[in-house]
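Pinned message: reference record for Small ribosomal subunit protein uS5
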Amino acid sequence: MADDAGAVGVPRGPRGPGMGNRSGFHGGFGSRGRGHGQGRVQGRGAHGGKAEDKEWMFVTKLGRLVKDMKSKSLEEIYVFSLPIKESEIIDFFLGASLKDEVVVLKIMPVQKQTRAGQRTRFKAFVAIRDYNGHVGLGIKCSKEVATAIRGAIILAKLSIVPVHRGYWGNKISKPHTVPCKVTGRCGSVLVHLIPAPRVTGIVSAPVPKKLLMMADIDDCYTSARGCTATLGNFAKATSDAISKTYSCLTPDLWKETVFTNLCAEDPSSSCVYNIGFLYKKNKVN
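Predicted structure (tokens):
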């Protein structure tokens, strides 16, 4: 029987007939769909390198307008109150000035009790700004710190708002403070921003002071109420107050009104008839 097995060509290995040379089974277990063992290693190596920068594919109408250069600046988007849902839009306008202006305010662990035990994740608070009066705050929670920071940066870009600066007293040199008293609120925290004269500085707690400095506000008084020990609500309330600086339209933001003489342009208009009727009525009286 042994000679017959050798005659048929069944491989004879050190562990007995039919086993062959064990080195031939690279992947193990024959063909179970994984192929030979080296295939998975090559697949990982192909995708393990640094991803190349791909072309931005817009998914919203606003992204299409920005990519076609029909929207020239962020101010045009703010004027029409269009929601920004793609962070690439902010990168398109402010990408060069936002790279080095990311500040991580705090990273704190948060826990949730589940049936399997406690689930711990990390919550990141990130502020972002450019050098031209734009600031944003992003908060993201994730299992890993790096993922939380990356997500918070994206949310900070989506929530970026313009900062309206003004004067205290004489309008000399550049704007240095908030234009009027503004109030922001989040939870139990209430933050008031009050204009201050020059060389006063920012009179504030550390969290609002950092956000006001990022908003390019040099002088400001602040007043806070509530549980300011909660950094997230404190930062959100300050960001809300900063975003309300454009809620007050100062005279420099008033749109210039151009009056036209309708009677001179169109003699057949109703205003000519009304003027003639009033003239006759006054003449009779």
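Pinned by admin. Summary line: Residues 270-284 form the longest helix (15 residues).
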